[in-house]
Amino acid sequence: MSKLIMVSNRLPVKIHADGTAERTTGGLASALEGAALEIEQVWVGWPGGAEEDFEDTEKVRAELKKSGVAPVFLTQDELDGFYEGYSNGTLWPLLHYMVERARFSRDWWEAYRQVNEKFAEVIMEVADEGDQVWIHDYHLFLVPSLLRGQKKGLKVGFFLHTPFCTSEIFRVLPNRVELLKGVLGADVIGFHTYNYLRHFRSALLRVLGWESETEGMWHKGREVRMGVYPIGHNHAGFESVMSQPDFPAILEKHRQELAGKRMILNVERLDYTKGLPEKLAAMRRFLTLHPDKRDEVLFVLIAVPSRQGVKEYDLLTEEVQREVGAINGEFGRVGHSPIQFLHRGFPIADLAAFYALCEVCLVTPLRDGMNLVAKEFLDCQRPEFSDRPGVLILSEFAGAAQELSHSIQVNPYDIDDVAEALNRALEMPDNERRSRIDMMQGRLRKQDSGNWARRFLKDLEKVPDREERVAIMEMKPLAVQLAEEVQAGRKLGLFLDYDGTLRDFVDVPDHAVPDPDLPGLIRDLAAVGNISLAVVSGRPSTFLEKHLGGLGATLVGEHGYRWLDGGSGDWQLFNPHVNTEWKHSIREHLEQVCLLTPGTHMEEKQSALVWHYRKADPEFGAWRARGLLDELTGMAANLPVTVHHGQKIVEISSLQVSKGVAVEHFIKEWNCSLALVAGDDQTDETMIALEPEGVEFFAVKVGKGSTRATYRTDITGMRVFLEALRDELRR
Ligand code: GDG
User: Fold this and answer.
1) CA 399 to CA 351: how far, in whole Å?
2) Beta-strand (E) ranges in 39-79?
3) What is the pLDDT of residue 466?
4) pLDDT > 90? residue 567
5) Minimal CA–CA distance to 191: which of 375, 396, 464, 459?
6) Are residues 269 and 356 in the same domain?
7) pLDDT for residue 467 is more than 60
8) What would the pLDDT profile of 169-217 be if each residue is shown by its tens digit?
9) How far is ligand 1, taken at its centre, from the CA of residue 233, in Å?
10) From atom 4 of ligand 1, which residue's Cα is the shortest distance away?
11) Are 629 and 662 members of one domain?
12) Are residues 533 and 473 in the same domain?
């Protein structure tokens, strides 16, 4: 039976002074509880505190093991660099669009990398074949890819609790490439909103140059799925405290304390992303504009201390305390101060009572991944607890704004807007308040945190098992079959495309030289008596001869225009009379397109013209390519050419030349009774679509996209196939 391994920076545990430990219920723990999963669970994470402060880490480890927890102990130095440093000093502000607060240090990054490795090691210690691993948040961006290649066939999920900022901001990070590649090790990547997913995809495109679809992408032979999973609050937890026999008394106590004042509530972890100073400015504006309401309202600011000891947070606390004092000094009177600043946490029952009794809940973060306070407030608003329904004022920059569309939405930076919203909320008639709450409440209760966890894990579970994943690309049986046929005396023709089939794409086409193993593999296969091998590429002859010449394989260049028998000697033309007069008019047009599109260039081949846009801005390049294709459709209608949109290229080539024509020629010439063609793009379809008479024909599509091929694999699978064929023939 597989199990679920939950991985979060902070473990839901409390370690006592005597080394004993107990489980606590944090947000994630209660979400899992609510999901009511019938699967064994193990937690991996930091137990809190510095490693050197534990008297006996082994004892703690053994204690925690009893409750299914595997701790990752971190030294004070690691905590400084990984947690306070890179996670909270670099990533947190940046992901929340606060570039000016982000600080960068190579030492922090190094610590982040090392601690992510530590997490991966502990995960691997507890993981068994086929387990599901669910990694949480920005502290652990690198862990998914560190778990790859560990041979345990793990299903890896990653969920980001913060926003994913626009790629223009993400690009600022010196380690942007490593971070993105790190997350792509996951099988399922989840975000709170579609916008975050969109920004993530755009970062993949702009930072790595990798295209993806909304649902995900194909990466290193796996499908990486991306999805939107808005987190819900802990409905069951609130329901439970509100149905306790002591809840009415708690409610009554706070009602008495309010003494008839209209409570405007704010609950948050004291963090600069939550925008408390801006909120205070809006309160000041409201109190200034509405002297008649000064006496009747009470702003209750509950700010749970957070990251204490970090200078920035200490300064924020001081700033808030100063401003609260100033506002109370200016607008208070004997017996009433308009703002109460409560700088501490409250038991959940008290929190529920505050939510139930307040008339306005002011949730105006400057940026927030989701914001659960808004959802908790709505859930606790019940007619049996208060005669007057409350109103939610919500920042449009909280992830929750997309779901909670019946709140009053404000721009938290616009102080006047927030002040006006406060007045509007207080003036809102009860029936409108109630109906707004009703419209949001039903959905919230169903889409609670348990439901969120269930939905994410359901998608993670759907990731194909290792066996199935291998089966999709399993090319070995075909290699075994072909080896047997060859050994039985049949003649096999192998026709292999180069870029995207034998070699991955890179930014600069000239850098896509064969990896060290490839020439040997080609030489070995071409040396087999009953095999003839051709590399059939769109590349110019010079490139092919330089890197793949002299190996015994025939080289076919420029999509079948020229060929070099056995990889040495003189190049020959398939058809010396190919009409290339059309090049003149198309060349001029392409030159214009190059001028108008920075980062693009034109390549001229004997029988083709190619427009390359790999180095252009990815979106601009793709847009220009679509336009060019439209134009060419008209221009080329009466010309003997075909137009092909390939990987970051648009190629116009002579109709009389194609890979298919070349392959057909060699199948006959070499007397093949078996033939295998493999390619990744549309030009390869001309060989894939062949139906040579009397020949047993195998067509392999490498990668995604529509095809007429009957086999599909990826570059790794293709290599596995060729190596297996060689090894089988050596037996
Ligand atoms: C991150 C993302 C995303 C607050 N005061 C007390 C108290 N709380 C509880 C609230 C709420 C939680 O803390 C705060 O959750 P938020 O969602 O508002 O914000 P973050 O802590 O920043 O969480 C955020 C979240 O992850 C989940 O993905 O929504 O965007 O930043 O549950 O109730 N709880 C108790 N006493 C308090 O005084 N017991």
Assistant:
1) 22
2) 41-46, 69-71
3) 61
4) no
5) 459
6) yes
7) no
8) 999 999 999 999 999 999 999 999 999 999 999 999 989 988 888 888 8
9) 9
10) 268
11) no
12) yes
Do 294 and 366 sit in the same domain of this protein? yes
Beta bridge partners of 461: none
pLDDT of residue 471: 44
In this structure, are residues 263 and 357 in contact, taking their beta carbons and an 8 Å threshold?
Answer: yes
Residue nearest atom 39 of ligand 1, based on CA coordinates: 348
Atom 28 (ligand 1) nearest CA: 161
The confidence score (pLDDT) of residue 472 equals 52
pLDDT cut 70: percent of the chain above it: 98
Active site residue 684: no
- For residue 376, the ligand 1 atom closest to its alpha carbon is 33
The residue to which tokens 């545990």 are assigned: 13
Q: For the segment 394-422, what is each residue's pLDDT rounded down to a tens digit?
A: 999 999 999 999 999 999 999 999 999 99
Q: Are residues 647 and 661 in the same domain?
A: no
What integer is the mean pLDDT of 532-561? 94
Task: Name the band, by pLDDT with cuts 50, 70 and 90, for residue 470.
Answer: very low
How many A from CA of 707 to the centre of ligand 1? 49
- Candidate of 270, 373, 376 to mutate for ligand 1, largest count of ligand atoms within 8 Å of Cβ: 373
Residue nearest to atom 32 of ligand 1 (CA): 372
Q: Which atom of ligand 1 is nearest to the CA of 344?
A: 38
Query: Mind listing the pLDDT tens digit for each residue in 203-212?
Result: 999 899 888 8
Note whether residue 94 is domain-resident.
yes
Q: How far is the CA of 546 from the centre of ligand 1 (A)?
A: 61
What is the reported pLDDT for 533? Answer: 97
CA of 27, closest atom in ligand 1: 32
CA of 411 to the centre of ligand 1 (A): 21
Residue nearest to atom 1 of ligand 1 (CA): 161
Shared domain for 501 and 609, answered yes or no, is no
Q: Are 501 and 721 in contact (CB under 8 A)?
A: no
- Token digits of residue 132: 């599901």
Question: Domain of 616: which CATH number?
Answer: 3.30.70.1020
Query: Quick one: average pLDDT of 569-586?
Result: 89
Q: Which of 187, 497, 499, 684 is an active site residue?
A: 497
Sign of CA dihedral 715, 208, 6, 229: negative
149 pLDDT band (50/70/90 cuts)?
Answer: confident
Cβ < 6 A, ligand 1 pocket: 27, 161-162, 231, 267, 269, 302, 304, 345-346, 348, 351, 368-373, 376
Flag whether 637 is in a domain.
yes
Interval between CA 300 and ligand 1 midpoint (Å): 17
Write out pLDDT tens, residues 475-533.
Answer: 888 999 999 999 999 999 999 999 999 998 776 667 889 999 999 999 999 999 999 99
Residue pair 181/150 in contact (Cβ under 8 Å)? The answer is no
DSSP state of 673: S
> pLDDT per residue over 630-653, tens digit each?
888 888 888 888 888 888 899 998
Which of 267, 313, 348, 404 to probe ligand 1 with, by most ligand atoms within 8 A of CB? 267
DSSP state of 458: H
Count other C-beta atoms under 10 Å from residue 273's C-beta: 22
How far is 96 from 99, CA to CA, in rounded Å? 8
- Are residues 289 and 386 both part of a single domain? yes
Cα(36) to ligand 1 centroid in Å equals: 22
Length of the chain: 731
Residue to mutate (ligand 1; options 269, 313, 348; most atoms within 8 A of CB): 269
Report the nearest atom of ligand 1 relative to the CA of 363.
18
Rounded Cα distance between 620 and 596, Å, is 11
> Which of 510, 504, 649, 619 has its CA nearest to residue 211?
619
